[in-house]
Design brief:
The chain is mainly alpha-helical. It has helices spanning 7-18, 24-31, 35-45, 48-59. α1 runs antiparallel to α2 (24-31).
Length: 85
């Protein structure tokens, strides 16, 4: 695991790992952490109960792996976003 991660980087990695639509590949691209290194970081930084909940969620999510996605990569946009009144 890269030793040069500061607390802001660690916080952002945790945030990205919790997001359903952010794949592990995005974390690898941005921070150089593999999926296994991300899991190890999460286990180190989270409470044991939080880590277990996160692992349970991640295992059931195809969106965390680019190869398993069934949608085009992009951001979700609400149907009423940018509507003017």
């Amino acid at each position: 695991m890269p030793a040069k991660l500061n607390q802001a980087d660690i916080d952002r990695i945790i945030e990205m790992a919790w997001e359903d639509r952010t794949p592990f590949d995005a974390i690898t691209f941005q921070f150089g952490l593999t999926e296994q290194e991300t899991k190890a970081l999460m286990q180190k930084e989270l409470k044991p109960s939080s880590y277990k909940l996160w692992r349970k969620r991640v295992q059931a999510r195809a969106t965390k792996h680019l190869a398993k996605r069934d949608f085009v990569v992009g951001r979700h946009q609400s149907y009423d976003q940018n509507k003017h009144k």
